[in-house]
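Closing statement on the calcium ion sub-project.
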Amino acid sequence: MAIPGKIIPLTFMAFSALSACAGPPESSPRPLARGSAPVADPIPPTDAATEARFESWLAGFKSRALANGITEYTWNRAMADVRYNPKVIERDRYQSEFTKSIWDYLDSAVSDERVATGKQMLRQYGPQLDAIERKYGVDKEVVVAIWGMESRYGAYRGKTAIIPALATLAYDGRRGEFFAKQLIAALKIIQSGDVDARHMTGSWAGAMGHTQFIPTSYLSYAVDFTGDGRRDIWSEDPTDALASTAAYLARSGWSKGQPWGVEVILPSGFDYGLTGKGTKKSPADWAALGVRSATGGTVPNYGSASILVPAGAKGPAFMIFGNFRAISRYNSADSYVIGVGHLSDRLKGKGPFVQDWPRTGKPLNSKQKVELQERLTAAGFDTDGTDGKIGANTSKAIVAFQKSRGLPPDGYATLELLQVLRGS
Ligand SMILES: [Ca+2]
């Protein structure tokens, strides 16, 4: 879930790797958490020198933990078996280079199988989901869609021990301070008694349980919906995790009855400079510009909206509303939000998108994005920095460049566009 800088396919990678692992035999004494929470996978060995440096860093980190309210008792229990986990660093390095096109991403995120399983889950957990929807005012299909996206409805919650993983990432990761904060938060969770270290499991970057909460989000939003005194997002029963997700969306400004977005058809000659989250208009104002619902007719007035063309002029267009932003608090990648939104629509019985994706070309990797920004800026189309992320400033620069070349000005970064720039 919401990890700054995270790119979309994290969950899939983490889970596909995890799914191959079998858990260790049950041999420890009865845990604090209820029995069905998975026990963590063993940590692979690392060299003695790294382990020694890690141990010494950890000894220093202890004073920070204690200064943040962690007791000696909690520290000793949680850190008893902590070792450096080389696997999480491997994953962290690999992830930063990983890119996937939005259509490939959505094909797996909203596969027929995932839609079918989601509908089955809506039936299986019907009473709990209805109660959660009543309490938090968040559509149950959206909550179930996040569950499907994050852990394939609980099937891949992750069996990496969270404390060693976070400690390793805090010590050795690209975003040490972020993970240091997560580690403190994880220790607070253990101190609260909701789970013990042995059963605090998740994926390699610290996302835990059915809906993959990172520790700080857990502390802010997790709820005990079952009323057993424990906010249990790790065990087989998904109720607390689903309610926690609904609570998260409610606090992120969810508006009941408003869609995340609606697929729309843009008129020919549409000004692509109006696309992107920076421009907001009422559906009526968009209709006046010729924007129509893809399924026919005009879009009802759900509130102020932006137009998004995630794959440029050749792909589907969406009119997005405030709830798009609420979902993006969970994971800020547009592809993720569209995946959750579309999966939830499919769970409500709606059909696939009307327009198809271009399905040609590979997405730019981060190096190519930086090169694109450098070349645009050098050509006089300032991207306001070269961070390798295609944000509003880069899109604007692309639009200006496209217009200068008589290309369709959709602001979409492609290899084709980079090649035009290389040739200029
Ligand atoms: Ca509970």
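Residues 78 and 197 are 5 Å apart (CA to CA). With this model delivered, the sub-project is considered complete and its resources will be redirected to Aim 3.
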